[in-house]
Amino acid sequence: MNLLYEGKAKKVFAADEPDKCVVCYKDDATAFNGQKKGAIEGKGAFNNKITNFFMGMLESHGVRTHYIKELSDRETLVTKVEIIPLEVIVRNIAAGSLAKRLGLAEGAALACTVLEFCYKSDELGDPLLNEYHIAALKLASPEELEAIKTAAFKINGLLTNYLEAVGILLVDFKLEFGRFKGEILLADEISPDTCRFWDAQTHEKLDKDRFRRDMENVRKGYEEISGRLGL
Ligand code: 5GP
Q1: Model pTM greater than 0.85?
Q2: Is 116 in the pocket of ligand 1 (CB under 6 A)?
Q3: Residue 158: which CATH number?
Q4: Mean pLDDT for the chain overall
Protein backbone atom coordinates (compact mmCIF):
# COMPACT_ATOMS: atom_id res chain seq x y z
CA MET A 1 0.00 0.00 0.00
CA ASN A 2 1.15 3.54 -0.76
CA LEU A 3 2.03 5.38 2.47
CA LEU A 4 0.54 8.90 2.46
CA TYR A 5 1.50 9.99 5.98
CA GLU A 6 3.08 8.61 9.11
CA GLY A 7 2.21 10.13 12.47
CA LYS A 8 3.30 9.23 16.00
CA ALA A 9 0.59 6.60 16.53
CA LYS A 10 -0.82 5.92 13.07
CA LYS A 11 0.09 5.43 9.44
CA VAL A 12 -2.23 6.49 6.63
CA PHE A 13 -2.20 4.63 3.32
CA ALA A 14 -3.91 5.33 -0.01
CA ALA A 15 -7.00 3.19 -0.64
CA ASP A 16 -8.25 1.83 -3.96
CA GLU A 17 -10.76 4.68 -4.24
CA PRO A 18 -9.38 8.27 -4.30
CA ASP A 19 -11.86 9.63 -1.71
CA LYS A 20 -10.85 7.05 0.89
CA CYS A 21 -7.75 6.03 2.83
CA VAL A 22 -6.67 3.31 5.23
CA VAL A 23 -5.59 4.17 8.78
CA CYS A 24 -3.22 1.71 10.46
CA TYR A 25 -2.80 2.01 14.24
CA LYS A 26 0.71 1.45 15.67
CA ASP A 27 1.82 0.26 19.11
CA ASP A 28 4.23 3.23 19.34
CA ALA A 29 3.52 5.63 22.18
CA THR A 30 4.89 9.13 22.57
CA ALA A 31 4.28 11.89 25.06
CA PHE A 32 5.34 15.49 25.66
CA ASN A 33 5.51 16.30 21.96
CA GLY A 34 7.64 13.25 21.18
CA GLN A 35 10.20 13.72 23.98
CA LYS A 36 9.11 10.49 25.67
CA LYS A 37 9.00 7.48 23.36
CA GLY A 38 7.97 3.86 23.89
CA ALA A 39 5.65 1.12 22.73
CA ILE A 40 2.64 -0.50 24.37
CA GLU A 41 2.05 -4.02 23.08
CA GLY A 42 -1.39 -4.34 21.53
CA LYS A 43 -2.22 -0.62 21.80
CA GLY A 44 -2.80 -0.24 18.05
CA ALA A 45 -5.41 -3.00 17.97
CA PHE A 46 -7.15 -1.68 21.11
CA ASN A 47 -7.29 1.89 19.76
CA ASN A 48 -8.57 0.71 16.39
CA LYS A 49 -11.54 -1.13 17.87
CA ILE A 50 -12.26 1.44 20.61
CA THR A 51 -12.23 4.31 18.07
CA ASN A 52 -14.43 2.43 15.61
CA PHE A 53 -16.89 1.56 18.34
CA PHE A 54 -17.22 5.23 19.37
CA MET A 55 -17.36 6.47 15.75
CA GLY A 56 -20.17 4.00 15.00
CA MET A 57 -22.07 5.00 18.14
CA LEU A 58 -21.72 8.71 17.27
CA GLU A 59 -22.81 8.13 13.64
CA SER A 60 -25.92 6.32 14.91
CA HIS A 61 -26.76 9.53 16.80
CA GLY A 62 -26.31 11.78 13.76
CA VAL A 63 -22.66 12.88 14.15
CA ARG A 64 -20.92 12.85 10.76
CA THR A 65 -17.55 11.05 10.95
CA HIS A 66 -14.85 9.82 8.58
CA TYR A 67 -15.38 6.18 9.66
CA ILE A 68 -16.36 3.72 6.93
CA LYS A 69 -15.34 0.17 7.84
CA GLU A 70 -12.93 -1.82 10.02
CA LEU A 71 -10.65 -3.82 7.71
CA SER A 72 -8.53 -5.77 10.22
CA ASP A 73 -7.50 -5.63 13.86
CA ARG A 74 -5.33 -2.55 13.17
CA GLU A 75 -6.68 -1.13 9.93
CA THR A 76 -9.75 0.94 9.16
CA LEU A 77 -11.11 2.42 5.95
CA VAL A 78 -12.00 6.09 6.36
CA THR A 79 -13.07 9.03 4.19
CA LYS A 80 -10.04 11.01 3.04
CA VAL A 81 -10.66 14.41 4.61
CA GLU A 82 -8.56 17.57 4.60
CA ILE A 83 -7.58 17.79 8.26
CA ILE A 84 -8.25 21.18 9.88
CA PRO A 85 -5.07 21.96 11.86
CA LEU A 86 -6.86 22.34 15.21
CA GLU A 87 -6.89 20.15 18.29
CA VAL A 88 -10.34 20.62 19.77
CA ILE A 89 -10.19 19.85 23.48
CA VAL A 90 -13.27 19.32 25.62
CA ARG A 91 -12.87 19.36 29.41
CA ASN A 92 -15.45 18.26 31.97
CA ILE A 93 -13.13 18.04 34.99
CA ALA A 94 -9.82 19.86 35.65
CA ALA A 95 -6.79 17.74 34.75
CA GLY A 96 -3.56 17.79 32.76
CA SER A 97 -2.44 21.06 31.21
CA LEU A 98 -5.57 22.97 32.35
CA ALA A 99 -4.97 22.05 36.01
CA LYS A 100 -1.31 23.07 35.64
CA ARG A 101 -1.96 26.32 33.75
CA LEU A 102 -4.66 27.58 36.12
CA GLY A 103 -3.33 26.15 39.39
CA LEU A 104 -6.29 23.81 39.91
CA ALA A 105 -6.18 20.48 41.69
CA GLU A 106 -6.49 17.55 39.32
CA GLY A 107 -10.07 16.35 39.62
CA ALA A 108 -11.45 19.78 40.60
CA ALA A 109 -15.00 20.42 39.38
CA LEU A 110 -15.56 22.96 36.59
CA ALA A 111 -18.76 25.04 36.66
CA CYS A 112 -19.23 24.39 32.96
CA THR A 113 -17.65 22.35 30.20
CA VAL A 114 -14.54 24.06 28.79
CA LEU A 115 -13.75 24.03 25.07
CA GLU A 116 -10.17 24.80 24.02
CA PHE A 117 -8.41 24.97 20.67
CA CYS A 118 -4.76 24.27 20.02
CA TYR A 119 -2.83 24.80 16.80
CA LYS A 120 -1.77 21.38 15.48
CA SER A 121 1.94 22.05 15.07
CA ASP A 122 4.65 19.78 16.48
CA GLU A 123 7.30 22.47 15.82
CA LEU A 124 5.40 24.97 17.98
CA GLY A 125 4.28 22.41 20.60
CA ASP A 126 0.53 22.70 19.81
CA PRO A 127 0.00 26.22 21.27
CA LEU A 128 -3.37 27.27 22.71
CA LEU A 129 -5.49 29.41 20.34
CA ASN A 130 -8.66 31.43 20.71
CA GLU A 131 -11.27 32.09 18.04
CA TYR A 132 -9.59 35.35 16.97
CA HIS A 133 -6.33 33.48 16.29
CA ILE A 134 -8.25 30.89 14.27
CA ALA A 135 -9.85 33.67 12.18
CA ALA A 136 -6.60 35.65 11.84
CA LEU A 137 -4.68 32.60 10.64
CA LYS A 138 -7.63 31.48 8.47
CA LEU A 139 -7.47 28.00 10.02
CA ALA A 140 -11.24 27.56 9.76
CA SER A 141 -14.10 29.77 8.54
CA PRO A 142 -16.65 31.11 11.09
CA GLU A 143 -19.21 28.63 9.72
CA GLU A 144 -16.78 25.73 10.05
CA LEU A 145 -15.91 26.76 13.59
CA GLU A 146 -19.60 26.86 14.54
CA ALA A 147 -20.09 23.37 13.09
CA ILE A 148 -17.03 22.13 15.02
CA LYS A 149 -18.22 23.65 18.32
CA THR A 150 -21.73 22.23 17.93
CA ALA A 151 -20.32 18.78 17.07
CA ALA A 152 -17.83 18.86 19.98
CA PHE A 153 -20.57 19.53 22.57
CA LYS A 154 -22.87 16.92 21.04
CA ILE A 155 -20.04 14.35 21.05
CA ASN A 156 -19.27 15.21 24.69
CA GLY A 157 -22.87 14.58 25.71
CA LEU A 158 -23.10 11.27 23.86
CA LEU A 159 -19.73 9.96 25.07
CA THR A 160 -20.26 11.12 28.67
CA ASN A 161 -23.63 9.37 28.90
CA TYR A 162 -22.41 6.19 27.26
CA LEU A 163 -19.33 5.96 29.47
CA GLU A 164 -21.22 6.81 32.67
CA ALA A 165 -23.32 3.67 32.13
CA VAL A 166 -20.16 1.53 32.17
CA GLY A 167 -18.64 3.24 35.21
CA ILE A 168 -16.21 5.56 33.41
CA LEU A 169 -15.80 9.30 33.98
CA LEU A 170 -14.94 11.22 30.79
CA VAL A 171 -12.53 13.81 32.20
CA ASP A 172 -11.38 15.41 28.93
CA PHE A 173 -10.59 14.53 25.34
CA LYS A 174 -9.16 15.81 22.07
CA LEU A 175 -10.95 15.79 18.74
CA GLU A 176 -9.84 16.55 15.20
CA PHE A 177 -12.10 17.44 12.31
CA GLY A 178 -11.69 17.46 8.53
CA ARG A 179 -13.31 18.89 5.44
CA PHE A 180 -14.94 16.65 2.85
CA LYS A 181 -17.10 17.95 -0.02
CA GLY A 182 -18.22 21.02 1.94
CA GLU A 183 -18.98 19.06 5.10
CA ILE A 184 -17.17 18.90 8.44
CA LEU A 185 -16.48 15.32 9.52
CA LEU A 186 -15.09 14.05 12.81
CA ALA A 187 -11.70 12.46 12.02
CA ASP A 188 -8.67 11.01 13.86
CA GLU A 189 -9.40 8.77 16.87
CA ILE A 190 -11.28 8.53 20.17
CA SER A 191 -9.24 6.25 22.40
CA PRO A 192 -7.27 6.12 25.67
CA ASP A 193 -4.52 7.97 23.73
CA THR A 194 -6.75 11.00 23.17
CA CYS A 195 -9.12 10.94 26.16
CA ARG A 196 -8.76 10.94 29.92
CA PHE A 197 -10.90 8.11 31.27
CA TRP A 198 -11.16 7.59 35.05
CA ASP A 199 -12.91 4.78 36.86
CA ALA A 200 -16.06 6.47 38.21
CA GLN A 201 -15.69 4.92 41.70
CA THR A 202 -11.95 4.97 42.36
CA HIS A 203 -10.79 7.67 39.88
CA GLU A 204 -8.10 5.25 38.74
CA LYS A 205 -6.57 6.46 35.47
CA LEU A 206 -7.52 4.24 32.51
CA ASP A 207 -5.74 6.08 29.70
CA LYS A 208 -2.39 7.20 28.31
CA ASP A 209 -1.61 9.18 31.48
CA ARG A 210 -0.35 5.82 32.83
CA PHE A 211 2.39 6.00 30.17
CA ARG A 212 2.91 9.78 30.39
CA ARG A 213 3.34 9.58 34.17
CA ASP A 214 5.45 6.38 34.35
CA MET A 215 2.74 4.44 36.20
CA GLU A 216 2.71 0.64 36.39
CA ASN A 217 0.77 -1.47 33.86
CA VAL A 218 0.53 0.99 30.95
CA ARG A 219 -1.69 -1.49 29.03
CA LYS A 220 -4.38 -1.41 31.71
CA GLY A 221 -6.36 1.54 30.35
CA TYR A 222 -6.60 0.07 26.86
CA GLU A 223 -7.66 -3.36 28.17
CA GLU A 224 -10.10 -1.99 30.70
CA ILE A 225 -11.85 0.45 28.33
CA SER A 226 -12.10 -2.20 25.66
CA GLY A 227 -13.58 -4.64 28.21
CA ARG A 228 -16.09 -2.15 29.62
CA LEU A 229 -17.31 -1.45 26.07
CA GLY A 230 -17.72 -5.19 25.54
CA LEU A 231 -15.21 -5.28 22.65
P1 5GP B 1 -3.88 18.22 28.11
O2 5GP B 1 -3.97 19.56 27.40
O3 5GP B 1 -4.42 18.28 29.48
O4 5GP B 1 -2.49 17.65 28.03
O5 5GP B 1 -4.78 17.23 27.26
C6 5GP B 1 -6.19 17.34 27.27
C7 5GP B 1 -6.81 16.14 26.60
O8 5GP B 1 -6.55 16.16 25.20
C9 5GP B 1 -6.27 14.80 27.10
O10 5GP B 1 -7.35 13.87 27.11
C11 5GP B 1 -5.23 14.39 26.06
O12 5GP B 1 -5.20 12.99 25.91
C13 5GP B 1 -5.75 15.06 24.80
N14 5GP B 1 -4.66 15.62 23.99
C15 5GP B 1 -4.24 16.91 23.95
N16 5GP B 1 -3.22 17.06 23.09
C17 5GP B 1 -2.98 15.87 22.57
C18 5GP B 1 -2.02 15.37 21.62
O19 5GP B 1 -1.20 16.10 21.04
N20 5GP B 1 -2.07 14.03 21.36
C21 5GP B 1 -2.97 13.20 21.98
N22 5GP B 1 -2.94 11.89 21.69
N23 5GP B 1 -3.88 13.63 22.86
C24 5GP B 1 -3.89 14.94 23.16
Answers
A1: yes
A2: no
A3: 3.30.470.20
A4: 97
